[in-house]
Amino acid sequence: MFLAIYEDLEVFKGLDGFLKGLVISVIAMAIVFAILLIICLLVKVLKLIGNVAGKNKKEEKSEKFIPATNEKKAFSAEDIKDDDMMAAILVATIDYVSETKEDARVVSAKQIG
To answer: How far apart are CA 95 and CA 89, in angstroms?
Structure first.
């Protein structure tokens, strides 16, 4: 499309082959970068919209949280028996936090098997 317009412009009629190619290359690169800039701006706008929607969902989740009424014995470092148990507790906590995007605190741990 650009080449059809380019051939009709009188400004470029006096240029030789190398300069014509150079001008076409520069204009084509400018078009590509303009399109990339538009895509970046659209992604940022969509990200902002997603963050606003995510905050609304987070507020709804926090309202639904009902704390447990029964009091348990506080979990302490003495309850951890070995390094494998510590690693399992840390991995489970990290996985929970990454899924829910909320802060977490280990209340209890139980060894199975």
So the answer is: 10
> How far is the C-alpha of 106 from the C-alpha of 92, rounded, in Å?
9
Residue 91: give the domain boundaries.
71-113
Is residue 29 one of the residues assigned to a domain?
A: yes
66-108: per-residue pLDDT in tens?
555 555 665 666 777 778 888 888 888 899 889 988 888 877 7
Q: Is 101 helix (H, G, I), strand (E, B) or coil?
A: coil
pTM value > 0.90: no
Report the C-alpha gap between 96 and 106 in whole angstroms. Answer: 11
3-class DSSP string for 81-94: CCHHHHHHHHHHHH
Number of domains in the chain: 2
10 in a domain, yes or no?
no
Asked, for residue 54, whether it belongs to a domain, the answer is yes
Q: Specify whether 27 is located in the same domain as 60.
A: yes
31, 2 in Cβ contact below 8 A? yes
Handedness of CA 10, 12, 15, 21 (dihedral sign): negative
